[in-house]
């Protein structure tokens, strides 16, 4: 049996598929750009080929604070063990030099008035236990030092000084690691995405910042920097070119009162690096906006800093943050479940430069959004009417008692007429 031929010729199908493939643009995924600042505020920077490693030992305290907890604990544990072993060896040498290790001295000590340097120290184990008792000031009472050896008194003083230094460095390092400034920054949060929308007739770059703790950040200030790769007219390539951009703040100072989540706004004007960027150009831009929040912790008085960054893929054009602060029974309540929620609003897709040159673009955009909003309301109202009519019809069909019966009227001439009410 012959195979069934298609109604459409095969040559036409192949030509059509080829034409569709040519029309569709081939979108290739761009290689993901490395961030300079991660979303959690960590600097994505690796230091390599550092030859002068001795500079870190010159500031040993800062080096210990910067280390990880497991490395710090290992260093302090080894410091105590090494000091105990070192002074245990010194106590053993003092006892050996004085003759306390000789078994014959025990018999002579009972018959004569012979006194050892340290009582009950006749082996390295007992010397190690005595070293621990001296340094941590335990003093069980079995082993004790006498006034027989001045060298033993010198070793005792030296071990106490070394033990105090190790304890002081350990306590200071642990305190600084637990009270570091970035610990307080863990409760300072930023919105995952930033938005660009119209505010007061200007295109603005906006993001939201909040504090989860009730203890406030005093003298909090926000700075924004744009980091991008630039090339100078002389041909020099600057891989990390930082440009400060101003923050719109109605207060003369740059400080903010971070009692509730705030929307930080940057007006895109002639001074802004985003002045010539439109919505279509934003996805092609290789830039990163770094946000830095600095302030003093109210409870400890330590200066803290929280950081985050926004790349082009994390900036929503034509969106606005939803309000999350409401008044409930005389108290302002903050709903953090909507902290990063946005809603789409009308915004021109052109750049801020084009908007300044042609202000009519903004008016036309607002008019179009108003018309679309009215049309959507009309469609919604018509759909509600249709749904109500369908419900009433379905109720009449399902409930026979609601059907109006036909009534016959008899005229004086004797003819019958039926009418339905």
Automatic annotation (TrEMBL):
Subcellular location: Membrane
Region annotated Disordered, chain positions: 372-397
Low complexity bias locations: 384-397
GO MF, one example: ATP-activated inward rectifier potassium channel activity
Topological type in the membrane: Multi-pass membrane protein
GO cellular component terms given for this protein: monoatomic ion channel complex; plasma membrane
Catalytic activity as recorded in UniProt: K(+)(in) = K(+)(out)
Pfam families, A to Z: IRK, IRK_C
Site (Role in the control of polyamine-mediated channel gating and in the blocking by intracellular magnesium): 167
Protein family per UniProt: Belongs to the inward rectifier-type potassium channel (TC 1.A.2.1) family.
Protein name: KCNJ8 protein
Lineage start: Eukaryota, Metazoa, Chordata, Craniata, Vertebrata
């Amino acid at each position: 049996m012959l195979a069934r031929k298609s109604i459409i010729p095969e040559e036409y199908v192949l030509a059509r598929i080829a034409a569709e493939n040519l029309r569709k643009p081939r979108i290739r995924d761009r290689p993901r750009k490395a961030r300079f600042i991660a979303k959690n505020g960590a600097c994505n920077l690796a230091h390599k080929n550092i030859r002068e490693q001795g500079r870190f030992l010159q500031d040993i305290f800062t080096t210990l604070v910067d280390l990880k907890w497991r490395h710090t604990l290992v260093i302090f544990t080894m410091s105590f063990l090494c000091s105990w072993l070192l002074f245990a060896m010194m106590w053993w040498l003092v006892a050996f030099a004085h003759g306390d290790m000789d078994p014959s001295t025990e018999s002579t000590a009972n018959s004569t008035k012979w006194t050892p340097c340290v009582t009950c120290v006749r082996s390295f184990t007992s010397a190690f236990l005595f070293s621990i008792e001296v340094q941590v000031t335990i003093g069980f009472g079995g082993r004790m030092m006498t006034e027989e050896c001045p060298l033993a008194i010198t070793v005792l003083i030296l071990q106490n000084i070394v033990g105090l230094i190790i304890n002081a460095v350990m306590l200071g390092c642990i305190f600084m690691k637990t009270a570091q400034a970035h610990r307080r920054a863990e409760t300072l949060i930023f919105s995952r995405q930033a938005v660009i929308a119209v505010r007061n007739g200007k295109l603005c770059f906006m993001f939201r910042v909040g504090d989860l703790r009730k203890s406030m950040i005093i003298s909090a200030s926000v700075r924004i920097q744009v980091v991008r790769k630039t090339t100078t007219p002389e041909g020099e390539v600057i891989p990390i070119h930082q440009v400060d951009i101003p923050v719109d703040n109605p207060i003369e100072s740059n400080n903010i009162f971070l009692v509730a989540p705030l929307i930080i706004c940057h007006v895109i004007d002639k001074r802004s690096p985003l002045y010539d960027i439109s919505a279509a150009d934003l996805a092609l831009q290789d830039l990163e906006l770094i946000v830095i929040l600095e302030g003093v912790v109210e409870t400890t008085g330590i200066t803290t800093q929280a950081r985050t960054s926004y790349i082009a893929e994390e900036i929503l054009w034509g969106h606005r943050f939803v309000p999350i602060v409401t008044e409930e029974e005389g108290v302002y309540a903050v709903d953090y479940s909507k902290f990063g929620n946005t809603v789409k609003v009308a915004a021109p897709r052109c750049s801020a430069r084009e908007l300044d040159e042609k202000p009519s673009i903004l008016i036309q955009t607002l008019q179009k959004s108003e018309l679309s909003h009215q049309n959507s309301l009309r469609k919604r109202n018509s759909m509600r009417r249709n749904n109500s009519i369908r419900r009433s019809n379905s109720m009449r069909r399902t409930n026979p008692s609601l059907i109006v019966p036909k009534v016959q009227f008899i005229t004086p001439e004797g003819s019958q007429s039926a009418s339905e009410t």
